[in-house]
Every structure is written in structure tokens, then in C-alpha cells.
Amino acid sequence: MSYDNDPLSPPPIYPGTRPRFHAMVKPTGALCNLDCVYCYYLQKEELLGSKNQFRISDEILETHIRQYIEGQRGDEVVFSWQGGEPTLLGVGFFEKVVALEKKYQRPNQRIENDLQTNGTLLDDEWCAFLRDNKFLVGLSIDGPQELHDTYRVNKGGQPTFDKVFAAGQMLQKYKVPFNTLTVVNRVNAKKPLDVYRFLSRELRPMAASTPAITTCIRNTSSATLERNTSRA
Questions:
Q1: What CATH code would you report for 24-231?
Q2: Environment class of residue 17 by beta-carbon count within 10 Å: exposed (0-12), middle (13-18) or buried (19+)?
Q3: What are the pLDDT digits (tens) for 124-135?
Q4: Lesser CB count within 10 Å: N end or C end of the chain?
Q5: C-alpha Rg value of the chain to the nearest Å
């Protein structure tokens, strides 16, 4: 069947071309140990009816890694692990990931991994694993404590800054390369220099780039924020 008749088939590879593509994997789906007030994704926990159905199965994990590597024609393959909160799966899950990547890696092919995390579960075991396997980490933090703790709270509504900042220091200790991801919201948007100076001077991410900042893609109303804050 030709590609024109089957849109789900991969496009043809023409002579002399080295097509590359990039996809993010959410191995825990929407599952997260935080309850950030502005998060639109947590509501997706209700879609499947059971939280156990969000975790990627071993069979699908191996199939994805094999096909993702097979589909790349460049010298580098980048796996991006996001959530939810992917560290909920534990170090053992990502040890399996690395083993599968090595199993299907082609000669002279370089495989990289990056991991986006809220940092609250990082410990010595995690940091040693991330260092030894050369993961690039993205640490989610919204600025200094008074700004970060406005919306980024745990399931009990308690602030998370201390754990996240400690995670940044631990990544520094283990020399794990990391950058930062900040949601620009109605509170920290009023103090951009405070946020940037905190990230660059106090947290001091150890990646080649400057701190990465993303905007919140959902325009959350005041009423919604107040309702979620009360719930938390």
C-alpha cells in the first residue's frame, strides 16, 4: 500500500536524505504527586477510570523504543520523558529504558535522554543514575520561594519549594546537567527580574543554555484559580 493511501504509514525515505523526528513520552500519563493550581493536565486522570491504566506496559515500552530508534536516520536519537511526573515510576523503570535503548541501538548511533521533573522525588539514587547515564534534566520551578509556592503545591496543598530547591542542589552535587522550566503566571509575571536572577544566580542550572522559560498555555480565569486554591 502506498503512503498516499495509508496516512499511518511512515513517509518514504528518499536517497540522500536523513530524516529525523522527535516525540515526547509520558510513561505515567497524567499521574503526578503535585496538585499545581494552574495545571490543566491533572484532570485527565479521570479519562481511563483507573489510575493503574496510565502506566506504560513493558510490551508497549519496548515496542516504542525499538520503533523510535528504527525510524531515525540520523546519528543521534533523543528520548524525552515527561508527565505527569515520570519519577513516580522509580529508578528501576528507567534502568529498563536504558537497557532497551542499548539493545536496539545501531552501530555509531548516539542515544540521549532528557527527563522533565518537579524534583520532589529526587534523591541520591536518582541523581547517581541520571549522572551515570548522562540524562539531561529539566527541573520545574517557578522562581523564588514566595513565587513558586503560590501555585505549585502538593496533594495536601502544602508548598513544594524546599524540596525542589534541594533537588537543584543535589543535581549540582552530582554534576547532573539540568535546565529549568518556569510557568509564567499572573503572579511571577510581575517580577521577571526576580525570577531570572533567582534561576541564574541561586539555582544555577548546569546546562549549556540559559534557564528555559515557558508560558502557561491555558488562560486560567481568576475564578478557576480561586476555586482550585480553595480545593487545595
A1: 3.20.20.70
A2: exposed
A3: 999 999 999 999
A4: N
A5: 19
